[in-house]
Amino acid sequence: MSIKQLDTLYRFEKDKEMKAAQALQAAELDYQQNLDRLKGVGEYRLEYMRRLSERTKQGVDSSTFNHFHAFVTKLDHAGEQVQIAIKQSKALMEQRKQQWLKQRQKVQAVEHLKEIQMKKLAAAANRREQNMFDEIATQQFVRRNIA
């Protein structure tokens, strides 16, 4: 494979690696946002429960208590939904990470092939140069012995 072909392949694989890295970054961001949402729901629930506790000390009618209880149930449900989203986003993040790692290995393989090809080209150039010097030296030797 020529250096031009390897360069083209390298750029193609490098572009795919960059896209895989961006997808991984987006998945990591989504996962972190879900963690933040869960924390927010949990903190809001605790604050709401604190308010309920304060209100019950002052006395609360059953309608108000039922309202508080229904809202806490909704917060619990929201927390469960966020936990499901966390599991899904974590799985997606792991999948994207594996895809990026595979693509990174492809890029490294192409880099390795390019290095091998460059060494072969350098060795061939060195051989041509050495042959040229050998030819010059031979011609000089022949000229000296003839003269």
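Next protein, fold it too.
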Amino acid sequence: MSKIAKSFEVSIAKVDEVNRIVEGVVYRPSKVFKADGTPTDYIDSQGDWMTEDDVKKACHKFAKKLTISKSGKTGVDKHHNEKAGYGVVVENYIAKADIPDIDAKAGDWCAAVEVTDEATWKQVQKREITGFSMGGNAVYIPVEGGEEDATND
């Protein structure tokens, strides 16, 4: 893959100790592309990237998933273990403008989670959990020049 100008870490940017809420960017989309379709601005920690439209779709799909609980449990999982009960999403949105206090740019997928599990809250406080991680399946689509694009479905 070609050299990308900037990789972006999705760190917890803000911690509300009183209400046990962590907030930050879940995913930053790529917005600037070369003629062959590869990004020149942002990639994720796995070297993948998504467009603004794909990030918006993923954000909305996540919101729908939270409202449709098959197990009766609500909340978020931890380390992609698919078990709810560690926290509750209190905000989930696409930033309409830059939000400096959480280092969000317009178009970023942002979230705030109230951490309800005591052990998980202690991990946040010890900085053992430092960010958000979007789970999901991706379909890699070849782009011009032999590179691939990951599209979240």
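About the second fold: Residues 1-7 have pLDDT under 50 and may be disordered.
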